[in-house]
Amino acid sequence: MSTLTALARAQALAAGKAQPTATVRHLHLARRPLVLVPLTMAGEANAPLAVLVGTDPGQPRLLVVPQPRNRDQRLDFVTALGTVLLPYLDGHRGVSESVPVDRGRDVRYRYVEAPQLIVPNSGGITFLRLLGRNTRFRRTDGDYPVDASVPLVGRWLTFLAERAEHPGSSLLVALTEALGLHWATGQSSVEDLNLAAQLGWIDPPPGVTGSVAAAEAEDPSIWPPAGPATDPEFDNGVLAPAMAAYQAAVAADDAPARQRAYASMAEALRGQLEPTWRLMWRGLSLLHALPPGARVAGRWDADRDAFTDYAGYTDEGGQPQPRRDGAVAAAQRLHRLERALSSYAVQRAYDDPLVMADHRLTGEAFVGEVTLADPARVDDTGKRPVLRPRIMVVTTDPVLVQPGASLTSPARPGQKARVVFVTRTGDGSKTEVVLELSGGMGRGLTAPPGTVPEVGERLCYTTLTDGYAPPGTFPSREDTPWTHGGPPTDGSTES
């Protein structure tokens, strides 16, 4: 937890309401997301019990597994989920756009839209990941065949769950994490996993403090858990008798009794899910009220690329994702995630002064006013003269950078600033930083208007950079070192 986040939590506790930790929205929100609230059966590993799913707040669809221990009923549930999920995915594959590549010498195509699934919390993402793992290898022929949609649903759920691990991705979003990215509550991060309690702090009812609203949210009779786990009292007092009645009706081959038992169970499960369903749309409306950050669209473009690539892969008959990555594939994936995490942190800071404030505290950034500017300065010490304007920035922030360091301003990300001098003023309350600028001013010896900061302009400079860095190099699968298991012998374990 950063210093400012800790301060915001303390202020939230004192004020009785969550405090904003962002001025812009750091994720993309689709116009028509697929909201999914799952429940699993206690004591059975990832056994689906019910799900409330849909794109219309007023018309959710309830899917129920009356006996989660029954494998056939689980597969029927996945088939039913596929009738919702697969058409939703296909609905985003209608129109493509061309994207220039290779410096405009070629083009590629991607879909103009991509799907977005919203679940209440990280447990919902885990549920989808495990459901995908359990179904993507199912066979549609031979012994115990399943519906053709089952393995396809499993592969798409695995793709979405893996994409959710990619920092900054918005294809599969846990709402509690999205809200926690923008507000700090007066409770711990563990307590924020309760969606009702978290929203109680962020958007409490009139005249009610966040702590009171959060305390009420802990009462399962008022706000049932947001899943995928259920409340033990509900399990023992309502669910177990309803399942027993259904089983008795099945054993007696009494169709009317079975229908009544199923309807009773479905009604009870809907009562557990609908409060969370309403909270989901309430939380999304709060996020919609925030303006998107400038770099959110670029990350959504990457999501659309990933969706387009995987859709094409499945259309071409590609194999399901492996059960586990080999050594080389795992190292490549970890490298991609680390690069994405670093880039995401920089982009958030560039988009949001509240996020950048954390880096100002650590000395990685400072904000000051331009007091001197020489936009026409030319450096003629080299083989040919080059434009190298200089400016002086006066700041009250701590400045830990040394002469020679390279800085960047979010206001002009394509321009580099080299630190020439760092001087403390006489009373020590301010610091003067002289910067030499390069890039972002054309190729001539005269800077176009607006490319060089003017006197009186207030700017942020930081050591954080999101510039291009070449990816790491890795051996081929066939050259996997013996220290990492050697070349793979089972293709099913490699990607």
Number of helices: 12
User: How many extended strands?
Assistant: 17
The run of helices and strands is HEEEEHEEEHHEHEHHHHHHHEEEEEEEE
Strand order of the largest sheet: 14-15-16-13-10-17
Kindly provide the radius of gyration, computed on alpha-carbon positions and rounded to a whole number of angstroms. 27 Å
| Shape descriptor | globular
Q: How would you describe the overall organization of this protein?
A:
With 495 residues, this protein is of the alpha+beta class. The protein has twelve helices and 17 strands. The chain has helices at residues 3-15, 71-90, 122-135, 149-164, 175-180, 195-202, 210-217, 232-251, 255-288, 296-315, 327-351, 353-361; strands at residues 19-20, 34-40, 48-54, 61-64, 96-101, 106-111, 117-119, 172-174, 183-184, 365-374, 378-379, 386-387, 390-395, 406-409, 412-424, 431-438, 458-462. The chain has a six-stranded antiparallel sheet with strand order 14-15-16-13-10-17. Strand 11 and strand 12 form a beta hairpin. Helix 3 (122-135) packs antiparallel against helix 4 (149-164), helix 6 (195-202) runs antiparallel to helix 7 and helix 8 (232-251) packs antiparallel against helix 9. The chain is globular, with a radius of gyration of 27 Å. The relative contact order is 0.11. Residues 491-495 have low confidence and may be disordered.
